[in-house]
């Protein structure tokens, strides 16, 4: 859970080589990386810049006389800062640097760079490298810093699958300006399943523990109730169970799309790139935020023992919440999706609705009302409505400011909170739709039934959560919202008997969960006592601090 120093080798270094190095380059590097003869990381973020890639300061200047690139970090803010596995473990890195050829700045490009000697592992001359120190979590990973002092690498270490620099310095452009961002898009497209998994772990712990923990009464009786029988506890946990499934289904779809994109890009077709970038930018942001909230609620649902490290939920939270920042800070990525949504509105206004992609086609279709009692399809229309409403409102705000003479960037900034709201609603619609489609495809009738209950819970919870938008223009009435509330409570109660099976179905072993509260056998109290007794403070009855500090204080006459 704390991460692995070689994680980025598999998650970003190898994928960056696969997607960005030419076949010829990969004959040299890929097998060695796959066999772990060399260990690599993905070094892009700098001390001064992470979000705004166009302002990265590390330069790679082509020297035509020696056919080498000269890597340089001109000032302190240019140091690479954060890359996982960079500090101590990696001897190579894919380094993203601003490429300069014949004095022309050609923007961020990726280079394979050797950092350490393959035998001694010592850092090479011209390289400054180290660990950035302890973090909120992920402390088994050596996130690092890296500086270059006019460090030379061969021309052929520029990753040349899509763009090239010829020996004489001729630059061959890539088929899409952002193709070098593919390693990030790959991780973003995997993040929904990854985060769904973190959420599932926290929920497994909280739901199991909630059937062991008895406290208070619902009706006066002999035995106190299992806390999972409280409606508030169910409301805290069950919608997140539904989300963990929903995120996983959405993630499967984005992974498939990324794989399709890779194949298409290899044949020169880059048409999917904008769609996938927009989709994964929004999905990554919504899923990480909701996962962090869900894990924190799971911790609180375990009361005092949730706060103990014995629950292990705090560790899961620390790792998962990193996802709100890495692979693009959430607000920044929501605004990337918003660009796509605003462009779609502009297309509709220009009478070009026919050109809209399938995920945004709904923005052009108005619906007057819904009959929620008819089922999930009607909820989808309601989600479409609120997303369309907010997307148009935010876009109109931006376009009006533009028309009034504001500069584009200023108008954008003044509309940005509304724009991020539109991006979230659009993404939540996508999550609900993939959830619905995935449940429809389930063949086993019993599995389908329980997943359908979760789907119903999800759509009712989500619609209630976005109620302000739906009430704003009278699209939903307050009696319709009462119906949604009733449905929500109905499904909480219906899911209760299956709750433990739903979390057990994720099949986390005790070793994976490392939680005293979430043990499969339910022997929580005995093991909490054993866990506490094993605390380092309990190795001796009397601590040395008693002689050193307590006694002098207690014996003092002052
Ligand atoms: C596999 C399992 C995974 C499990 C998890 C593993 C755990 C590992 C833990 C941590 C790993 C962490 C790694 C990292 O964090 S690596 C560093 C990540 N850094 C970022 O994500 C930086 C975020 N910033 C950006 O991506 C970019 O700067 C940007 C997209 C915000 C803006 O880029 P810029 O070049 O400035 O573009 P513009 O804003 O000017 O946009 C121009 C135009 O281009 C479009 N566009 C941008 N990016 C893409 C893309 N990738 N694909 C397609 N199109 C893109 C953009 O939309 C604009 O289009 P327009 O509106 O039509 O003009
Ligand atoms: C655990 C972890 C692992 C990481 N691993 C790697 C790695 O392996 N390789 C690597 O290269 N990097 C890595 N990073 C770095 C990470 O990708 C960046 O930290 C991330 O992209 C955010 O960039 P930043 O730090 O510059 O944030 P900043 O951009 O400085 O964000 C600060 C604030 O400014 C806001 N902001 C910034 N720009 C805008 C804008 N245009 N509009 C509105 N608001 C804006 C943000 O929303 C945020 O609130 C890692 C980071 C973490 C935490």
Automatic annotation (TrEMBL):
One of its GO terms (cellular component) is peroxisome. It is found in: Peroxisome. Residues 2-39 form the Acyl-coenzyme A oxidase N-terminal domain. One of its GO terms (molecular function) is fatty acid binding. Residues 377-555 form the Acyl-CoA oxidase C-terminal domain. It comes from the Eukaryota. Residues 181-342 form the Acyl-CoA oxidase C-alpha1 domain. Belongs to the acyl-CoA oxidase family. This is Acyl-coenzyme A oxidase. It comes from Caenorhabditis japonica.
């Amino acid at each position: 859970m704390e991460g692995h120093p070689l994680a980025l080798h598999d998650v970003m270094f190898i994928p960056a080589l696969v997607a960005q190095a030419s076949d010829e380059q990969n004959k040299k590097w890929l097998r060695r990386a796959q066999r772990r003869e060399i260990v690599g990381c993905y070094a892009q973020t700098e001390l001064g810049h992470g979000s705004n890639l166009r302002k990265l300061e590390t330069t790679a200047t082509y020297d035509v006389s020696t056919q080498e690139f000269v890597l340089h970090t001109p000032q302190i803010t240019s140091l690479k800062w954060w890359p996982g596995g960079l500090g101590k473990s990696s001897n190579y890195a894919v380094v993203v640097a601003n490429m300069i050829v014949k004095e022309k700045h050609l923007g961020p490009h990726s280079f394979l760079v050797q950092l350490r000697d393959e035998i001694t592992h010592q850092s090479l001359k011209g390289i400054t490298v180290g660990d950035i120190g302890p973090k909120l979590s992920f402390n088994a990973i050596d996130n690092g810093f890296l500086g270059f002092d006019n460090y030379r690498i061969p021309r052929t270490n520029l990753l040349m699958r899509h763009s090239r620099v010829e020996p004489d310095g001729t630059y061959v452009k890539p088929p899409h300006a952002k193709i070098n961002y593919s390693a990030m898009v790959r991780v973003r497209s995997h993040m929904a399943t990854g985060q769904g998994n973190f959420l599932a772990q926290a929920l497994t712990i909280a739901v199991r523990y909630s059937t062991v923990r008895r406290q208070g009464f619902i009706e006066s009786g002999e035995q106190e109730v299992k806390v999972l029988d409280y409606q508030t506890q169910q409301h805290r946990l069950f919608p997140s169970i539904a989300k963990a499934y929903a995120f996983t289904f959405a993630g499967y779809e984005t992974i498939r799309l990324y794989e399709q994109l890779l194949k298409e890009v290899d044949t020169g077709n880059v048409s999917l790139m904008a769609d996938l970038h927009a989709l994964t930018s929004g999905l990554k942001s919504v899923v990480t935020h909701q996962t962090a909230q869900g894990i924190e609620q799971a911790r609180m649902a375990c009361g005092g023992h949730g706060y103990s490290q014995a629950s292990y939920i705090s560790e899961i939270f620390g790792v998962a919440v990193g996802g709100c920042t890495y692979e693009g800070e959430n607000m920044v990525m929501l605004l990337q999706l918003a660009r796509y949504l605003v462009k779609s509105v502009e297309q509709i206004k220009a009478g070009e609705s026919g050109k809209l992609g399938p995920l945004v086609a709904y923005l052009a279709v108005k619906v007057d009302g819904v009959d929620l009692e008819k089922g999930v399809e009607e909820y989808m229309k309601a989600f479409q409505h609120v997303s369309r409403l907010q997307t148009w409102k935010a876009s109109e705000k931006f376009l009006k400011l533009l028309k009034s003479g504001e500069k584009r960037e200023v108008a954008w900034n003044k509309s940005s909170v509304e724009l991020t709201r539109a991006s979230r609603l659009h993404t939540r619609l996508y999550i609900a739709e993939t959830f619905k489609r995935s449940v429809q495809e389930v063949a086993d009738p019993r599995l389908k039934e329980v997943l359908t209950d979760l789907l119903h819970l999800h759509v009712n919870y989500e619609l209630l959560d976005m109620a302000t938008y739906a009430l704003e223009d009278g699209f939903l009435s307050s009696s319709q919202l009462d119906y949604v509330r009733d449905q929500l409570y109905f499904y909480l109660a219906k899911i209760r008997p299956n709750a433990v099976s739903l979390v057990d179905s994720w099949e986390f072993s005790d070793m994976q969960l490392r939680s005293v509260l979430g043990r499969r056998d339910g022997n929580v109290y005995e093991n909490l006592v054993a866990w506490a007794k094993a605390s380092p403070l309990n190795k001796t009855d009397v601590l040395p601090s008693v002689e050193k500090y307590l006694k002098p204080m207690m014996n003092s006459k002052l």
